[in-house]
Write a structure and sequence with these properties.
Layout lengths: L2 H8 L1 E2 L2 E2 L51 H18 L1 H5 L3 H20 L8 H25 L11 H22 L2 H15 L19 H21 L6 H20 L6 H34 L4 H22 L2 H9 L6
Length: 347
């Protein structure tokens, strides 16, 4: 056999010649590190962790002394809408506190529109959509408060099964909220609000009349509106039967609207007077808020009485407990109410 034949035979295995693999140069050296690539002993850089979603509280409303009442109304309204929008990411992640702050922004907006109802009323369809959103956001928050706050106040029992049942109801309502916030109606509502406020769509076609309160300086035009809020609160306090839960809730709403009104126009009012006034209203709201939470809890627990035996037994115990707590919490309320009724931010 010739030397050439021996070489060919040595280069074959099972009759198939070994050939260099396609695309690979057997004489090439292994590539070195690319420019900018980390060395083998250098730690790899990791992408920064995403910022945690945090609930967004209301930003202070900044008003100037020379503003008109219309300019102040526009700025306050936009401030409320921004709070609603800023909490949307958190609500979409089922963050309970973000939902609370979205509802606060919506309540502030509704309080503002109520305050200006005779001066800058929104179109009927826009108002209806605002009320629709408020109704959709409420139930989830009620169940959150029951599961995470009210049940924590109950002693003498560990309501594990009841808390789980409340969380399941809350989660179901949070899922419904996700559906609501992805509906075209929600996007349309936010677009309409921004347009209505940004373009001052409340104006007549021929513009504001010279004698319109909206054309006045903001601090002058706000005084009648603030007095109206004060008088409404005093009237509801005077007519209150302290044992009447719906009546207490109406007082609470009036106190909340009076507080929002003072906070809206804080920059145009004496600072110390506003601070004292708001502080007294907050104390009243805290007391009435606890009583309202207990009343809402009783209503929600009524819905759970038909559940499994463990949940039903725990619900019955908690209902009795919060009934006794509510009766005790009413004591001394009359002094707090009388103190607030005589408070005035306008003099």
């Amino acid at each position: 056999m010739s030397n050439e034949s021996k070489s060919k035979q040595a280069a074959t295995r099972d009759g198939v010649a070994d050939e260099p693999k396609p695309g690979i140069d057997p004489t090439a050296q292994a590539p070195g590190p690319q420019p900018g690539a980390p060395a083998a002993n250098e730690p790899k850089l990791e992408a920064p962790a995403p910022e945690p979603i945090r609930p967004v509280k209301a930003e202070p409303v900044r008003l100037r002394a020379r503003m008109t009442l219309e300019e102040a109304f526009q700025r306050i309204g936009i401030n409320c809408v921004r709070q609603i929008e800023a909490n949307l990411p958190g609500v979409l992640h089922k963050n309970a506190e973000s939902l609370h702050q979205m509802r606060v922004g919506l309540r502030r907006l509704r309080a503002l529109l109520d305050m200006f109802e005779e001066l800058a009323a929104p179109p009927v369809a826009l108002h209806a959509s605002i009320e629709w959103l408020a109704a959709e956001l409420g139930p989830a928050r009620d169940w959150d408060v029951l599961a995470d706050s009210t049940l924590e106040r109950v002693h003498g029992i560990a309501p594990v099964a009841l808390r789980q049942a409340a969380h399941e109801r809350a989660n179901a309502h949070h899922a419904q909220i996700l559906y609501v916030l992805r509906e075209p109606r929600f996007a349309e509502l936010m677009g309409q609000l921004n347009d209505w406020l940004g373009q001052r769509r409340w104006r007549p076609e021929d513009g504001l009349a010279k004698n319109s309160p909206l054309a006045e300086r903001a601090w002058e035009g706000a005084l009648p509106l603030l007095r109206k809020a004060e008088k409404r609160l005093t009237k509801r306090i005077d007519g209150l039967d302290q044992g009447d839960a719906p009546g207490r809730h109406r007082v609470r709403i009036a106190a909340k609207k009076a507080r929002y009104a003072a906070e809206f126009f804080r920059d145009l009012l004496p600072a110390r007077r506003v601070k004292r006034y708001v502080s007294h209203l907050e104390q009243l709201q805290d007391r009435l808020g606890l009583l309202n939470d207990l009343a809402v809890a009783d209503h929600l627990l009524e819905e759970l009485k038909g559940g499994n035996s463990q949940v039903a037994k725990q619900a019955a115990y908690v209902r009795g407990y919060i009934a006794a707590t509510g009766q005790a919490s009413v004591r001394g309320l009359d002094k707090t109410l009388a103190d607030v009724a005589k408070r005035r931010i306008t003099r």
